[in-house]
Structures are given as C-alpha cells and as structure tokens.
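Service request form, structural biology core

Requester: graduate student, group of Dr. S.
Request type: structure prediction, single chain
Budget code: on file
Notes: please return the result as structure tokens.

Sequence provided:
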Amino acid sequence: MSNRGIGRARMFVGGFLLFAAVIVWSTGILTSPHGDPVADGTEHVRTVVVIYLRNVALATIFLSAISAWLLFPARRPKMPKRDWAIGIAIAVLIATSLYQLFWLRLAVLG
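Core staff response, request fulfilled:
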C-alpha cells in the first residue's frame, strides 16, 4: 500500500511556495533602486528602502529553500527535465537575492 497523497501534497505546497518566492522576488526587483538617481529631499527614506529590500531578499531565499526541499524528494524520475527547470529557476532566485544583499551592503557602506 502506497500513500501517493503525501507526494502530491509536497508537490502542491512546494509549487505554491515557489510561486510565492517568485512574487516576493519580483516585488523586490521592481522596487530596487539600481541606477536611479536620488531625488533631493528623499535621503531619509534610504534606510527604510534598504531594510525592505534586505527583508525581501531574505524572504526569497527562505521560500526558495523550502520549496526546493519540498519539490525534490528522494526518488528521482528517469528524465528530470522538470527538475532541471525548477532547479534553474530556484538558483536564479537565490543568486539574484544574494546579489541584492551584496549590492545593498555596498550601497549602504559606500
């Protein structure tokens, strides 16, 4: 007797968390001040933006890690094309979030 419901639930929750990670990541990317000049009188908002972007990057990394854990069970299929696509998507999310954290560190200290 096998319980396939747990595997389906892992796939559903993992996919849902990956979708949430993409949404969080895209809001962070769309609000990122890369390359925008600072308008006069808005310097006081800088720390709030830095904290927000830091939290978005950390939430993206956290959600991506949990979704990767749920989406990659121990048994692997013979043709893992879907796994490669999901793995690449998760790697891009985590890499850009790490870059965002690194860039914020340089922007605040620099």
